Amino acid sequence: MNEVLKRFEQLGIIPVVKIDDAKDAAPLAKALCEGGLPVAEVTFRTAAAEEAIRNMVEACPDMFVGAGTVLTTEQVDRAIAAGCKFIVSPGLNPKIVKYCIEKGIPITPGTSSPTDIEQAIELGLEAVKFFPAEASGGLAKIKAMAAPYVNMRFMPTGGISEKNLTSYLDFPKILACGGSWMVSEALINGGKFDEIKKLTREAVNTMLGFELKHVGINATSEEEADGVATSFEKLFGFTKNVGSSSIFAGSAIEVMKTPYLGAHGHIAIQTNYIERAIYHMELQGFEFDMDTAKYNGGKMVAVYLKGELGGFAVHLLQKK
């Protein structure tokens, strides 16, 4: 998988934006970055698209900015000149795909049928856009079409919202989802960039689905751990369950038989997508101790953050 597709997968959500006035591009870019999604697909539906891409790149140099609704080779050239990192088109035009390949710019063309997918494979593509997603049959159609094409990945766009986002992303062949609910035309034209930032952060949180799983308490011995777990059982009816290294009281309290990470213990936070969560948390400046990572069947299921919060180590758990 090329680096652009890897970035799509890490991000999970690709905001699809239509900008009528290029002056809105810079504040929009900052709102998306501050909201946790340093990426945008700027559609060539308006005359402002090229300048908007340039303004975004200048305002936020590390932002992953691409061009969407690209229909001509001339638009490809303009997008590249403006500094875009990827191209997206609503349909699969072999001429445009070949031109992008020649130019060395990654392209994700739109598809909605097996015929489209087979053309994409013939052109050497690893991923395609599925558009318009909901109107074309949604996740059920993607699952049905994906079966024969074992190596193809999909980026559904059109009708994706916070309500159906994770149902799409749960399917392993979905690379990322394109969406515009956090960057609606009305919000952009109204200059409501604080609202865009808020909705963007909510979109990321919805995707990652963080939830408290359990709190771990460090005991100095197995006897002390048993006493603490027994107290929780007597007080609250949390059934005691003895394990090899710890004793659980219910599912939310874990008492370590010997001290582990964290001065007081640890806090376990579960997430929908652990590796995607790591990427987004690292964007905010947090670091992980990859020596603590645990795997099941080759997939990461747990890992600790570096450092402590309030005397507690914190680790992520992959939801089942």
Automatic annotation (TrEMBL):
Gene3D superfamilies: Aldolase class I. Keywords: Carbohydrate metabolism, Lyase, Schiff base. Its EC number is 4.1.2.14. It catalyses: 2-dehydro-3-deoxy-6-phospho-D-gluconate = D-glyceraldehyde 3-phosphate + pyruvate. The keyword Lyase applies. Pathway: Carbohydrate acid metabolism; 2-dehydro-3-deoxy-D-gluconate degradation; D-glyceraldehyde 3-phosphate and pyruvate from 2-dehydro-3-deoxy-D-gluconate: step 2/2. PROSITE patterns: ALDOLASE_KDPG_KHG_1 (PS00159), ALDOLASE_KDPG_KHG_2 (PS00160). It is an enzyme of class 4 (lyase). It comes from the Bacteria. One of its GO terms (molecular function) is 2-dehydro-3-deoxy-phosphogluconate aldolase activity. SUPFAM superfamilies: Aldolase. Homotrimer. Belongs to the KHG/KDPG aldolase family. PANTHER family: 2-DEHYDRO-3-DEOXY-6-PHOSPHOGALACTONATE ALDOLASE-RELATED (PTHR30246:SF1), 2-KETO-3-DEOXY-6-PHOSPHOGLUCONATE ALDOLASE (PTHR30246). This is 2-dehydro-3-deoxy-phosphogluconate aldolase. It comes from Lachnoclostridium phytofermentans (strain ATCC 700394 / DSM 18823 / ISDg). The lineage of its organism: Bacteria, Bacillati, Bacillota, Clostridia, Lachnospirales.
